Amino acid sequence: MEKLFLSTHDQYFTIESEFTILDNLRISKGNKEKEFESVSKNKWRIAAHDVAELLTLGQEDRAAIYYSSEMKEITVENFELSVDSSLMIEVKNTVLYLYITLDNNLKFIWNQEPSARAFLEDWAIQSLEKGNNKDIQVSLKLDSKYIQLSKVFLVIKNRKENILSEIEMKSISINKVNDNLYRNIASFNFDIQSILQDIHPNMIYDTFDTTILDFFVRIEVEQLLVTDYKFRLKFPECKTGSIEEMWLDYSDHMKVLFNWYPTLHGMFSSKLGFLKNEEYEIFIKKEQQPVFKDKKLILITEYPHKAQDNGRFFFEYLMTKQSKYKPYFIITKDSKDITNLEPFMENVVIFKSKKHIELLFKASYIAHTHTSNYALPFLSKSTERMKSSMKKVFLQHGIIAIKNVDFVYSKVTNPSLTDKFLVSSEREKQQVMKQLSYEENEVAVTGLARFDSLLNGNSFFKSFSLRKNVLIMPTWRKGQDFLTDQEFMETDFYQYYFELLNDDQFLSLIKKFNLNVRLYLHNNFQKYNHLFSSESIEIIEAGTKDVQELLKEHGILITDYSSVGLDFALQKRSVIYYQFDQDKEEVSEGASENKDLLPGPVFTSKKKLIPFIEKKIKFNILEKQYKKTLKENIFPYDDKHSCDRIYAVLEQLDN
């Protein structure tokens, strides 16, 4: 293949061909042109100043290179490219680049670094091995076009917290494969503890770690600066056990698990798990022994730090109403909700304790309110196999209505979630089958376990007496739970609710009727409590009050898309929906389709919301039309036997 030489010298860019005559070589932008100067028969040059004359100062700008009267571009893939010097010249206080475009043509650009994507053709993990139990050794194969690589960086990203860390290569070897292709083998060695401290600084041992690490590669070339584009690494084709998961020393007292796995699109990622050394030894020992299942043993879980939802109430039911099954409630040792379980502490198991590890190998059932993964101390191939061998009952967190929960509960995206999906109405059953892809025999209409307690002691007079207690309880917004304080304060959610809490008309209403108003943020938004303030409204911290208590103590509820509105309406008390962001993709479709099943009116502005609150203070009982909605679409039973029906489902699974 004919050679093409690119170089710079004394503020000139030079192009030299081996044979081809690049007649009438010039640069063009719009209707302006500048010609290259002929140095010899096959060599041309152009002053950086002349190129700059065509480009707009202070802006990202480009100029194309042409030759011949037919306006041909120089396509570098037709040549064997040789670059023996920098392709950058500073002119007019700006760096000017002679670069290769993504479609393999030569151009000039300034105020913008050339794309790294023009130089990398293929990249892959060649090997991944454990070092000395404290580090990981990685080898990457990178095929670069036209230019060999000078530096390679392995980039690790904490997906949830959006924290990145770069590891520079330890060494690199380069071989020329063909005229325009170089094989670069880059080796890395990184210390686990230092990397995880960088990208996972908020690690909390006593909970379920949902961290996912994604892996990328970034390149540099000697001849010019390129963009810091991060190339996503694919899951390696190697099928050895070492590529699947790897236990290493996180510290002298703790192990960390890298559970490598391919994403839905085949990309390379890892889940993390942490175990103290003593529990780790027990787990490894149990893995190597025969497993003997107790056919009546049930693990019950909510969020690992919670015990105030359907899991707690079904656990209490099993502890007091039957003797056939052996229930154990899994909870973190520092949970504020652990006091809710005090009457049954013999069957309360601390998350990641030795007892938890032992029960994991014995249990035959999981009853869960969120993901069934929360019954596991961590996710590994082994624990996922154990979970698959157990029968799972999804107690649910709330009635499915307008909020899109496909990404969490769909059988397509989360096939191992559950064996029985519990719902509260025939309407919800049909929605779960259609929207979440479950079969009819996988869904059971029972009502939620907490309904029995919620309806206990409720009456018309009780509801009316609480009409001056107003609870504001919105749900969270996907993608906003890891924003900085400043970023969160810029969201519609924060601005609309902060304005409502401090609205003069609302504050005047509170004073006029001597109202007790409380704001309770979703668990995922609790970290932002300190950003909300109001002279007349109490901001409630999670753990100081159970949600069930809050619903029973208030006569009016203001929510948005949360299923808590459906629970509240079961008490025949007024629910008001404040949906200022119906246009958001996450809720727009559901809000439109399911508007008729909401047991209360919808407002999109506080201007109309506040006068309606005043109306409901005078009479907060649920209107007739919403009572009908409740009966037909939300909970037809209107009784206190939901736990009985759930127990019957459990017995069916037992057969």
Structure report:
There is one protein chain. The protein is of the alpha/beta class and 655 residues long. It has 4 domains: 3-112, no CATH class; 119-273, Sandwich (Immunoglobulin-like); 290-451, CDP-glycerol glycerophosphotransferase, N-terminal domain (Rossmann fold), CATH 3.40.50; 457-634, Rossmann fold, CATH 3.40.50. Helix content is 25%, strand content 30%. The protein contains 19 helices and 36 strands. The strands form 6 sheets. Strands 3, 4, 7, 8, 10, 11 and 12 form a 7-stranded antiparallel β-sheet that branches. Strands 15, 16, 19, 20, 21, 22 and 23 form a 7-stranded antiparallel β-sheet that branches. Strands 26-25-24-27-28-29-30 form a 7-stranded parallel β-sheet, sandwiched between helices. A hairpin with a 5-residue loop joins strand 11 and strand 12. Helix 3 runs parallel beside helix 5 (354-362). 38% of the residues are buried. The mean pLDDT is 93.
